[in-house]
Design a protein that fits this description.
This protein is mainly β and 64 residues long. Helices cover 8% and strands 16% of the residues. The protein has a domain of 42 residues. It has one helix and four strands. It has a two-stranded antiparallel sheet with strand order 1-2. A two-stranded antiparallel ribbon has the order 3-4. The longest helix has 5 residues. The chain is elongated and about 60 Å long. The mean pLDDT is 85. This is Toxin SymE-like domain-containing protein.
């Protein structure tokens, strides 16, 4: 059992993020949706620069 005063090796600051789907301009065409994730919280969650991951897409849901 963990000591009552122990702390984890890292702490992810919050487990929920709210984003807005933007667009990636291609000339005058703004119909291509785009999502951008950035922040130190990604590293805290295990997503270091250069790390490969899989994206699973379902109706209304994206899982990394």
């Amino acid at each position: 059992m963990a000591d009552s005063h122990s702390t984890p090796d890292f702490v992810v600051s919050g487990t929920e993020r709210h984003l807005i789907v933007g667009y990636r301009p291609q000339g005058r065409d703004t119909s291509t949706p785009s999502l951008t994730l950035s922040g130190k919280w990604l590293r805290a969650a295990g997503f270091d620069t250069g790390k490969r991951f899989t994206v699973k897409v379902m109706d209304g849901c994206i899982v990394l």
